Amino acid sequence: METIRSGSGCSAGRELCLKGVKCMNRGEYTAAVLKGLRHVTASEKEQIRKELDGHMEDHALELMERGWEREEAEEKAAACMGDPMEVSKELQKCYSYGWLIVGRVLGVVLVLLVLLSVTELGSAGYGLVMQWQAQHNPTKHMGEEQRAQIRRELDITVDCGNSVLQFYAVGESEEGETTVHYLIYNKTPFRFVAKNIGIRYEHPEADEHEMDRGGGYFSDAWVHYGNDDLVPPKGAESVTAVVTWGSRETRVEIPVTWEVAA
Amino acid sequence: MRKYRSRKEKAFRRAAVIALLIAALCATNAMNFLPRQAVRDAADSQNMGEFTVIRSFYDGKLRCYRMARQYMVESADALLLCAVGFDPLMGWYDRDWCAVSTDDGNGIHMGYRGHQQGEAYSGYFFGRLDDENIAQMKLRWKDAGDDNGERWCEKTLDEDAFFRGENGKRYLLWEADSFDATNTRWFHGMTAYAYDEAGKLLAEEEVRWHDWGTKE
Questions:
Q1: Can you give the pTM of this predicted structure?
Q2: Where does A134-255 sit in CATH, by number?
Q3: Domain segments of chain A: what residues?
């Protein structure tokens, strides 16, 4: 018996009992340790319970293998764990109240951020799709009717600083005007489109009014789609689009003719 | 068996996930956690490249400005005055702005950004003075009031409107308090004139004007 006590590092058992500390079984001992802990969550208590139980179970089994009765072995194993209040004190050091508060605050922040991210990242994803669509399938946003009015697809790109202006189609409106379709997007994915890019059209034989017959636009934070109606002079092959932003100006020729289907 | 994690480890893991989410929100421009990111959005809308902050300040005169900050920033070709606001759910966002081009070779570049909310009004003239000889500036505009816009008005800018930035350039930032600021009609067609010490006209430029309104 003495060999086992010293070999397992157990020196407290009988002395504790003799000093008047009630001999406890595993459950009572664990409960006593847990009672002495403050600010410990339910899951942490469960973890501690399992840990202590495991230790005592191992020790009790060892004793039983050497001929101890189960009840005695458990009491002995519990006693060998030491004073439950001392164990509580030592364990308490591993469960810092500060880290509990920090963890909980971060948990709340995390939940809020996840909720925000669902909507905000969704919106950013929409923006990315819009930018991709503008570059690869610019007519997708159009209705059937508007798409049917397109007579010629274009790929004329104007570099406007951070943004790109692309003339992607010319069409014919119901009133017989020529419609120039363009779009603007930021070169950098997710970034917002410039709102200060202006376009006017010129032709040496046309007056200002004929080159500005109205139009329309569809815009969000990432892409701006626009269409301008104009009436080029008869026989004109192209008109000049004057693109301005800030104090800069770029001129490009926009073809306004197309093959008529037989 | 489930791995046990200490409180410290849990807190660090949560902090790491928060940092990752913030990085994702910033990288996708989905949410601005710093006012400068919102200024970036305003600059993007004006097609400005990389910018530096010339001056930032607080102006709480309007209710919509109470959680906002004003920024005067400059890129290689433009100067921008904008307000960026903070919303707990949206983060920082661009509220209003006015940009002026600075690459046109002119001696002065002037803009005005005003914002009205109910009876309250906040307006600022801002600009850059590229001509070192400029000693005085005047604003001149045609009054669109009672006499059908025939009356010319003039205002000399105070000396404390001018300041030198850290980059050595001269700038102008002046709060339009002394005007009847709720009547903004006169800002249309306003011209700024720059003079030297002797009163010789050095440069003139039409003030680029941008006025905003927010419901009370």
A1: 0.81
A2: 2.60.40
A3: 2-95, 134-255
